[in-house]
């Protein structure tokens, strides 16, 4: 049985508008299920194109027990393979990043080309067929410089929907012509779903993120209207309308697209103004890099947010991009990988200062880690019970949980023999 009777019962009785039951955050059984049903079946954002800027450059990503090798080949195509030799299974590349001419197994020197073909395997006899021992490919999609992989035999087909919607928003920022100015790995002692839920709302932002809220309008992520905030909310709404007209004239889409719960490859995007005549998410709301992205000629282009199910969020501004990728490590530990990107021609110390570039999100990530860890401790308590989401500020958290429970339900009710083709048959789980 792929899903135990107890887990099935929790899936079926999940109460809409409330947090999940405690085992969804604390159980190693459910963690193992998440790795199969979620991270083993869906498009997972794991890297950016500047991770592998030149032919032979590679990066590795661990998803559960699977190590994935992402490499740029001699034709400048980015490919993904299982990081496993086809001889006796040794791991091929044992560093997080590097550069190579061919992929050579450190054990017995089986040698593969950058497109995964087995080139050399000594002492295997005249009947040995090299063509049957190429590296095992992993599905890869490159969305305007954001790299997604899928471990399923047949991945969800609705990535095409995501691509069609998002390329007009993302391409103007020129991610493929960026470089990684900084990268930080943070391990949170909390379940990955708590990390994602925390990201999907800003109910907590004013009280917990003083650096981030310098540039973010507090009304930009859901607020209950009241006489006390009516004037401020109305002013913000007028600003959104005015700036949207300006951006539309520049061919910069800004309208919200919200497909978080009705697609297998769920996503959301929106471009919003930044506060204090803001240009970027920095401590003074001004650009952190003088060399602007793409062909931009002005700095005040707001902040474009892009969220994907199940594991990423991103902020695109005129001068830099911040990407966040989440990978579960256990029921109670989660890797949050943050990367800051600037134009590839920007000069460190002249066009940008790394400390200034990263200050807001370094502080925010640490603050969020604390909040996630508080939540994990609470979920482990005998007093924990699912609590209600705010309909004003936590609607997108509910959509994440709705998506997650829907995907578990779909996996639980899919016969084993159909899992290989499950992705291409179901574009939307809502039925």
TrEMBL record:
Which InterPro entries does the UniProt entry name for this protein? Rieske_2Fe-2S, Rieske_2Fe-2S_sf, Ring_hydroxy_dOase_asu_C_dom, Rng_hydr_dOase-A
Note whether Iron occurs among the keywords: yes
Q: Which UniProt keywords apply?
A: 2Fe-2S, Iron, Iron-sulfur, Metal-binding, Oxidoreductase
Coiled-coil stretches:
none
Give the Pfam families listed for this entry: Rieske, Ring_hydroxyl_A
One Gene Ontology term of the molecular function aspect:
oxidoreductase activity
The Swiss-Prot or TrEMBL record lists the needed cofactor(s) as: Fe cation
What's this protein's family per the entry?
Belongs to the bacterial ring-hydroxylating dioxygenase alpha subunit family.
What is the protein named? (Fe-S)-binding protein
């Amino acid at each position: 049985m792929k899903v135990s009777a107890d887990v099935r019962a929790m899936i079926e009785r999940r109460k809409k508008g409330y947090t999940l039951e405690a085992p969804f955050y604390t159980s190693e059984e459910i963690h193992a299920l998440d790795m199969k049903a979620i991270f083993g079946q869906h498009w997972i954002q794991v890297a950016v194109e500047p991770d592998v800027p030149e032919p032979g450059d590679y990066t590795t990503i661990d998803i559960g027990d699977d190590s994935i090798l992402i490499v740029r080949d001699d034709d400048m195509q980015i490919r993904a393979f299982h990081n496993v030799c086809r001889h006796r299974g040794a791991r091929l590349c044992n560093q997080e990043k590097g550069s190579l001419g061919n992929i050579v197994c450190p054990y017995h020197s089986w040698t593969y080309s950058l497109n995964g073909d087995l080139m050399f395997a000594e002492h295997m006899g005249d009947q040995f067929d090299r063509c049957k021992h190429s590296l095992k490919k992993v599905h890869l999609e490159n969305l305007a410089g954001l790299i997604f992989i899928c471990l399923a035999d047949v991945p969800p087909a609705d990535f095409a929907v995501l691509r069609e919607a998002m390329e007009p928003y993302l391409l103007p920022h020129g991610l493929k012509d960026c470089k990684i100015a900084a990268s930080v790995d943070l391990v949170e002692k909390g379940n990955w779903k708590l990390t994602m839920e925390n990201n999907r709302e800003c109910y907590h932002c004013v009280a917990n993120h003083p650096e981030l809220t310098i540039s973010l309008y507090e009304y930009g992520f859901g607020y209950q209207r009241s006489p006390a905030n009516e004037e401020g909310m109305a002013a913000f709404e007028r600003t959104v309308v005015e700036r949207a007209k300006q951006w539309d004239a520049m061919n910069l889409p800004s309208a919200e697209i919200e497909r978080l719960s009705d697609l297998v490859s769920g996503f959301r995007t929106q471009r919003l103004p930044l506060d204090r005549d803001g240009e970027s998410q920095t401590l003074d709301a001004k650009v952190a890099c003088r060399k602007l992205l793409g062909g931009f000629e002005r700095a005040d282009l707001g902040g474009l947010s892009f969220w994907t199910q199940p594991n990423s969020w991103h902020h695109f501004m005129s001068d830099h991009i911040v990407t966040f990728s989440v990978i579960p490590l256990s029921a109670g530990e989660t890797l949050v990988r943050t990367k800051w990107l600037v134009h590839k021609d920007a000069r460190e110390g002249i066009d940008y200062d790394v400390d200034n570039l990263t200050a807001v999100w370094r502080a925010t990530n640490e603050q969020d880690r604390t909040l996630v860890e508080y939540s994990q401790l609470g979920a482990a308590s005998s007093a924990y019970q699912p609590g209600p989401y705010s309909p004003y500020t936590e609607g997108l958290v509910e959509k994440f949980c709705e998506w997650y429970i829907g995907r578990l339900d779909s996996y639980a009710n899919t016969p084993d023999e159909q899992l290989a083709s499950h992705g291409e048959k179901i574009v939307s789980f809502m039925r």
